Amino acid sequence: MNILEIRHCRKRFDQNEVLKDISLTVEQGKVVSIIGPSGSGKSTLLRCATLLEKMDGGELIYIGKKAVWEENGRMVSASASDMKDIRGCFGLVFQNFNLFPHYSVMKNITEAPILIQKRERDEVFETAKTLLRKMGLEDRGDAYPYQLSGGQQQRVSIARALALRPKMLFFDEPTSALDPELTGEILKVIRDLAMEHMTMVIVTHEMAFARDVSDHVIFMDEGVIVEEGAPNEIINHPTQQRTIQFLSRFN
Known about the structure:
Blueprint: E1 2-13, E2 16-27, E3 31-35, H1 42-49, E4 57-62, E5 65-71, E6 74-77, H2 80-87, E7 90-93, H3 105-115, H4 121-134, H5 150-163, E8 168-172, H6 180-195, E9 199-203, H7 207-213, E10 216-221, E11 224-229, H8 231-236, H9 241-247
Parallel strand pairs: 3-9, 3-10, 7-8, 8-9
Antiparallel strand pairs: 1-2, 1-4, 4-5, 5-6, 10-11
Helix pairs in contact: 3-4, 3-5, 4-5, 5-6
């Protein structure tokens, strides 16, 4: 089953066309990594997919339900109730953690499931405790973000996304704000989620990680998908000159 379909997505900022006719599909349980140079449109694509940016053209579909689409030259959005269901399909982990600094770790994780999803407080707290254990942070529930390392803050933000019980997770360069030692912590968490068949789309500069964890790798440059396919093919045996040139810096 396809969790996500993006068809002919276009996005511009003023005269700058950032995304030019991007189409991709993400199947349930699969991991898709998006690689490419800075400014290639990777993060903008993620922001369009998670409805943080408005697409200028194309279609966005979650589990067969249209979120936005083009009609008579303009973009149309799903109804409020459909949009609520659609937003519940995914979680997003940012590169800069985006935790609420004045909330404890526990409150950062439990606030949205209780307030937005209207779930039972006791059930949400049990879920949060389980997630903190999974992240190796069971003793940090009362801590505040400033008391945590960058790697710990990022693990809290992953737990916060998972607490909403999404069908898929988006990661926007989840290790770019971390030093190499802490990067390993986060990559291990994502690797474990992949082994549990969590559906994920990951924008990353970690090439070895993308090769080892992904089911599908997409190489983007200048707002287009230059090349895509199995990780081993794209990262070890690319065919397009631009992909070869980009990857030569990592080998």
